[in-house]
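[scheduler] slot 2 assigned
[scheduler] job type: sequence-to-structure, two independent chains
[scheduler] chain ordering preserved from manifest
[runner] begin chain α
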Amino acid sequence: MYDDRIELPKSPPDSMIRYLMEQRDLKEADLLPVFGARSIASDVITGKREPSKAHIRKLAEFFHVSPAVFL
């Protein structure tokens, strides 16, 4: 049986978001459905603000990863 899950290294949420964005060639604006506002997206992506629990759930769904990736 093939398991397509990969183990990601532990890193701060902003680093992981930037990594996942880079892998998918996404821009900050592409995450507006997750954060709802450009200012919030910017603050979370740059590490000025921690993602909320709701953001973590939406990020996990958006990127198809476990919410634990962002904790």
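[runner] end chain α
[runner] begin chain β
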Amino acid sequence: MYPTALREPGQADRWGYGALWWVWDAPVYPGPTYAGPYQGAYSARGTGGQFVTVLPFSDMVIVHTVDIDKDAKADVTAQNESTIRNMVLASTCDGPCPTK
């Protein structure tokens, strides 16, 4: 389920590949914490950096699309994908969000 050859060395994220999905392959969230936003996460990746990531711990699904018909060379790197996910996670509230 987690072939070493398909891991992304040097990336902060730890994803393994299995059953056509990239699955969070870290025994703990970065650091000593056993529960974090990536626990139980899985992601499908497509052409041009399109992806769908399911984050069960945060009760969240992130979908990112790219208009590859407009620009065939469009691409989102794995590092940019990680940044997008982390920015979305950072924008959420712990509990009810305050209203103005």
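[runner] end chain β
[qc] chain β: The radius of gyration is 15 Å.
[scheduler] slot 2 released
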